[in-house]
Amino acid sequence: MKVSSIVFFATAALAQTWTSCNPLEKTCPCNPGLGTTYSFDFTQQKASPIFPPDNYVKVDYKSDGVHLAVAKKGDAPTLSSTKYILGGRLDAVLKIAPGKGIVSSLVFQSADLDEIDFEWIGSKPLEAQSNYFGKGNTETYNRGATHPVSDAAQNFHKYSIDWTRDAITWYIDDVAVRTLTPAQSKTLYNSDNYYPQTPMQIKIGAWAAGDPSNQPGVIEWSDGPINYSAGPFNMVIQSITLTDYSKGATEYCYGDKTGSWDSIKISTDPSKGETKDETTSAKPTSTKAATSSTKETTLATSTSEKETTSYKPTSTKKANTSTYEVVPAITQGLPDSIGGMDGPQNKGVSSSGTAVAAEKTTSPSTTTVPNSASSVKSTGLSLVVAAVFAALLS
Q1: Region Disordered: which residues (predicted)?
Q2: In CATH terms, is domain 7-244+314-393 a member of 3.40.1280.10?
């Protein structure tokens, strides 16, 4: 697949507005660590123990993968990882859910509201959206980008996110479409504290963003309203490979309230980080857990220390520099099942802007991110959240 351009745009978002326990505010439970590479092929097996569906969600396992169907108001079928990573990579082969008002999402998220994502609107299958948030901060909305893709609703594509101390890189079919460095994040946020750097859980799913009962901004962004009679609308996940670059980690604990990478304490004690129902025939494809006489430590997970994996892309391609007019767009802010530790939420703010595509080179640090974004029109966020609660409970 040829990726010819990157479109950066101003995005208004809620991101994660709630967490059951924010480690920046109080002492919270530690997060179970993956510490290895885990792969699961949904065309060969069912019910991954590391990526189970949320308890209240019905999913269908078919020959082409696991189907997550949006059929009615409030539907948000989601696979949620039971393990966390600190630095790592996700490869997911999937088809997005088609249809106006249907949104598919792939999200990295942490307890202190760091977030990295891919997102797709069902009626716009020729583009994928990338975004990130730090510590739940949505004071600015200039971090989103769109990337061309060949009919994401009809074709399976491999979407990857590679996250280290040094950079976050988004890939489509092993081609790098965007790279973000801490320095670029500091420019975008006007702070060096908002580059994602805390243990992440992974969530993949679809939801009914364009339901007529949702806020106008949500419906507009998702190209709704939804015509449920044309459904159900299925997101299909064929396979998942998740690598934790903190090799051997069994548990992640916040050492203080800074939310910095170095503050995270990593345990390699095998007795820690256990989750329920971990017995399975599906086993990690590679890597041996690191052993150490010291059971708790702080591991550096820089680019140079990443585990070598067979699915690592070998090259990147250049993107043409172009200017695009961006239609009103909103990204982020997910319902509880996808947004994870955040409560049910929605997208109630819209924005528009003109963006300049960045030139992509083989050096991750050369991606250009704009220093400013166009003005953002705000609406009452409290009304948005209240509306979503009402929608999900009705």
Answers
A1: 263-318, 338-375
A2: no
